[in-house]
Amino acid sequence: MHGHDFFILASGEDTTYDTSVTLSIDNPSSRDVATPPVSGYLVIAFLTNNPGAWLMHCHIGWHTSEGLASQLVERYTKIAGLIDYDTLNGTCATWEAYVNNNSIVEDDSGV
Fold first, then answer.
1. What is the SS3 assignment for 4-29?
2. What is the pLDDT of residues 16-32, one digit of tens each?
3. Pure H helices in the chain
4. Which residues touch 41 (CB under 8 Å, ≥6 apart)?
5. What is the per-residue pLDDT across 44-81, written as a single tens digit (0 to 9) for each?
6. Would you state the torsion angle of the CA atoms of residues 5, 6, 8, 12, taken in this order, to the nearest 10 degrees?
7. Helix or strand holding residue 55 (H, E)
8. Three-state DSSP state, 46
């Protein structure tokens, strides 16, 4: 998870999370990277005090393409005025022209 450290409150392998799971809220483990259990769940908690657009994703490329990624926009009103839309749109247009001129086929987002 980019932009944050987080606490692991619960995890379970080969099972589905439900509200009967006891969360570890007394001195939980703190991490900046975690591997979810196989066919299971991972419950995390983090403080939403870092303005930005943050990506949480799997580091296996095709997993990200299959949807194992989320983007969190945090404290939008604090970041909205910092966005340089001319540069953002210009960069996207430059990339699109490069892709078209060089016959690049994009299979996924590139994350």
1. CCEEEEEEECCCCCCCCCCCCCCCCE
2. 999 999 999 999 999 99
3. 61-65, 76-79, 85-101
4. 10, 11, 12, 15, 16, 17
5. 999 999 999 999 988 887 888 888 889 999 999 998 88
6. -100
7. strand 52-57
8. coil
